[in-house]
Amino acid sequence: MTSTPPSASPLQQRWQRVANWQPQEHSIWLRHGVAVLLTLLAVGVRLAVAPPEAGGRFITLTLATALSALYGGFLAGMLSMALGMLLANILMVPPYGSLSFANPTATFWLNFWHVVTQFAVVGAIHLMQRQNRHLREATVQLQQSKKQLEDTFEQAATGMAHSEIGGAWIRVNQRYCDIVGYTREEMQRMHFRDFTHPDDLELDMRQLKRTLDGEIAHYSFEKRYIHRLGHVVWAYVTISLVRKPSGEPDYLIAVVQDISARKTTEQALRTSEHLLRQAHAIAGLASWRADMATGRFVTLAGSHQILGLPSADFSGEDLLALTHPDDLPRALSLWKRAVKGEAPYHIEYRLRFGGEEHWFLVQAEFERDAHGRAVSALGVIQDITQRKHAEMEIQQLNASLEQRIHHRTEALKAAYDELESYSYAVAHDLRSPLRIINGFAQALHEDHPGMNGESLSHLQRITAASKKMGELIDGLLKLSQYARGELQRQPVNLSAIATRLLEEFASAEPQRQVRWEIEPHLHVMADPALVEALMQNLLHNAWKYTANTPQAVISLRMNWQDSQQRFSVSDNGAGFDMARAAKLFQPFQRLHMPHEFSGLGIGLATSLRIVQRHGGELLATAEPGQGATFSFTLTARPLLN
């Protein structure tokens, strides 16, 4: 339904509402009820203003029928007419109160002409209302179409404008203003030449002239605008000419689409393609694509030239002919498995062309349909000929080097075994003269029980020296023993070993007050006998060098370092100067005077030999008077990825 203008007077507004009345918009019971009410009212008025015999009984009923038709439509008008005729014939035709007629003929014709005239009136009103309804519907559709066109123009995602032939703007939508950065008011005062890039203006004006001359009806092209902020905006512009019925140019329609993002993408794509070609050239790569339906292999972006391939397009038969016969079965087998998705396609094989043999590394990824069937493949191929030649040379050198290392190792092993045997033999053979010296010294002492003075002192020094010599020989034999034999790794409980050894030391020297702290459940995979000797040496050292410490403490702990176990034996005893630590693990080298602490200097050298045989490392930290810490590992340091 059309709306009434707000500026209309109240009388005009009421008349407009009456003119726009639509019976079908209201309930049928309401419309028919109003028709009955109007008819009864009309009959009542007629009887009130004149007696029944006065005539003109249908005058007020005609008005009621017309009003009922206007309010309720055709059916309501016909209901009013029928009801009015019934009541008039009963109440206003003698004999009154019945449907008996004194003059039936006159009554018939009077009723007949009343029906005809009322039907004509009601039909005319019905036709008028229908025409009015159609007119209003057409008006509403016209207004909606106009609004849709205006919305399309104003809300379009592309810039739109109507301009006069001379260039003045008729109307411009907001999107066009946003593209060039000006307000609508600023645009109305400008010509499109004012913000068109100077390099694109000539082409624009030339195409416009062709359009005005009738050579073309419209034209489209890419052009650049100068944005209000100064930067360039790329746009795709379509210009259409609208002519008058006489054929003369009327106005121009411009449709402007911002393609700056597309241009940026195209430039980035060109840059990427250029960089890709450069990368291919630097890396010696060629990209290729295979169509599984046709069996054609095509190199991309001319990359076949980088590798010197004879062509950019190959059939499957061409590639088979170029493949080295020794590599052909392996390449075919892997290709078939990769096409089925059973294995990745990553292979090195040889191609022969140009009279030479080339090694290539080929990789591919497959595009598959909804059923998992390969429809195409995209891959790269790299010339690795130089690398393969270098690998072959390295293999030859490695083979030669391994042979030389084997010979050297055999010679070194023989020399080492000979040295070990010599050391063992020397140490063993030295025991015999020592026994003789000790025997004669003992005999002299027994034969001369009254010996005293300087002679007894010399005899005692001979006995002590021979005993010292025996201990040194035992140390040499120990070192020789720990350097030989097969390493047997088994689970070893370091906590249990340390506790047992310290209890043995304490029972041997009950007068000592030593507190020990052993971290429980320290387990390691190592040779049990060697680890027993290692712990014996380290803990005995800690026990010995805390002899002069009033509140001695010995501890065994473990921490993780670089994903491996590191064990530490610490004490708060005499310690040593780290400046002299270089001699710490050398055989028979000691950092304290013999009158301070007894020993041969063989324990730490033996400990180092045991740790190294396990592939670990032994480190020491100390400070004079503050104790010492010996930390060790019994496995090789893991390799970093």
TrEMBL record:
It is found in: Membrane. Residues 219-271, 343-396 form the PAC domain. The chain crosses the membrane at residues 28-49, 61-88, 108-128. Its main location: membrane. This is histidine kinase. InterPro entries: BphY/WalK/GraS-like, HATPase_C_sf, HATPase_dom, His_kinase_dom, HisK_dim/P_dom, HisK_dim/P_sf, KdpD_sf, KdpD_TM. Residues 128-155 form a coiled coil. Keywords: ATP-binding, Coiled coil, Kinase, Membrane, Nucleotide-binding, Phosphoprotein, Transferase, Transmembrane, Transmembrane helix, Two-component regulatory system.
